Amino acid sequence: MADWLRILIAVAILGGLIALLIISYILNKRTKKPEGCIEIDEHCASCNIEGCAVRSVAVEIERAQGEDEK
Amino acid sequence: MHYLLLAISAILVSNIILTRFLGICPFVGVSKSPKNALGMSGALIGVVFMSSIISYAINRYLLEPLDLGFLKLIAFILVIASFVQFVEMFMKRYIPSLYKSLGIYLPLITTNCVVLTVALDVAGTSVTGSLLNWGEMLTYSAATAVGYALIIIGFSYIQLRMQNSTLLPKPFKGNAIALITAGLMAMAFMAFNGMIV
Q1: Could you write out the three-class secondary structure of A18-41?
Q2: Does residue B82 sit at the A interface (CB-CB below 8 Å)?
Q3: Domain residues of chain A, as ranges?
Q4: Interface residue B4 vs chain A (CB under 8 A)
Q5: How much is the average pLDDT of A15-42?
Q6: Contact assignment for A51 to B32 by CB distance below 8 Å
Q7: Higher pLDDT, A37 or A42
Q8: Contact predicate B92/A33, CB 8 Å
Q9: Prediction ipTM score
Q10: Residue percentage of chain A with pLDDT more than 70
Q11: CB of B197 less than 8 A from some CB of A
Q12: Which residues on chain B are in Cβ contact (under 8 Å) with A9?
């Protein structure tokens, strides 16, 4: 098989998979959650991994916001 | 017998957490309560098994015949991310009760490196070295996920005891003692190396 054709097929496969991801993401977002489900909070509050660096930053931001509101 | 050995090897001898230290983040984080560990394990077993089948099929019937093996990594990442979205959507729509118990863990699984590693393993890129057949692939992917579940559930009960312990020195509390315990578990599981001759 010619190289240009292989590259073209590779690009087509990648494009197809990216399109599949975008479609699945949009469809998933549009699907309503069943009643009584726990809403996942923003800023990592729902994540149980307490030692994560991202979470500690998010918690600090939330604390600062809470103090400002007071 | 060959499949049984493969399963025992994936669950006990070459456990993916204790020998390759993959999926440590949810292992330490989610295993703080047995209920969370059970939910995470259930969701992970389903996703690992199904995403391995899809990845294996794509590799065997599309990428390898076209000599596009270099696309494995990126293709599998996209396949796993899309698959998790579809699973979440399906559960929301048709199995709301299952979504209520497992739905919260699905976004965590998308970024769990165990899922990608098993997909790459069954495609023959890392540990195994050669392509597995369908039976071997199904056994290996199911057994690896079960091995992960076994460790994470067992570890959650150990974590419960550690949280309630008053004897633990302050510097060791939290993730420090969790990782030390994981190391001790890894050494204990090395004893299973003698099982398969």
Answers
A1: HHHHHHHHHHHHHCCCCCCCCCCC
A2: yes
A3: 1-31, 35-70
A4: no
A5: 82
A6: no
A7: A37
A8: yes
A9: 0.74
A10: 51
A11: no
A12: 66, 68
Q: Spell out which residues of chain A touch residue B104, defining contact as CB-CB under 8 Å.
A: 38, 40, 46
Per-residue tokens: A62: 């939330």
Q: What's the pTM?
A: 0.78
Question: What pLDDT score does A22 carry?
Answer: 94
| Cα of A68 to nearest chain B Cα, Å | 30
Tell me the three state secondary structure of residue B40: helix
DSSP string, B56-114: HHHIIIIITTTT-GGGHHHHHHHHHHHHHHHHHHHHHHH-HHHHHHHGGGHHHHHT-HH
Mean pLDDT over all residues of chain B? 83
Q: Between the ranges A32-41, B23-32, B42-51, B124-133, where is the mean pLDDT highest?
A: B42-51
Place of tokens 């809403």: A39
CA atoms within 13 A on the CB side of B68: 28
User: Can you say whether residue B35 is alpha, beta or left, with left for phi > 0 and alpha for psi between -120 and 50 degrees?
Assistant: alpha
Enumerate chain A positions whose Cβ falls within 8 A of a Cβ in B: 1, 6, 9-10, 13-14, 17-18, 20-21, 24-25, 27-28, 31-38, 40, 46-52
| Type of residue at A66 | G
CA distance B112 to B123: 18
Does B74 contact A at CB distance below 8 Å? yes
Distances (CA, A) of B53 to A38, A60, A62, B2, B197: 31, 42, 42, 20, 29
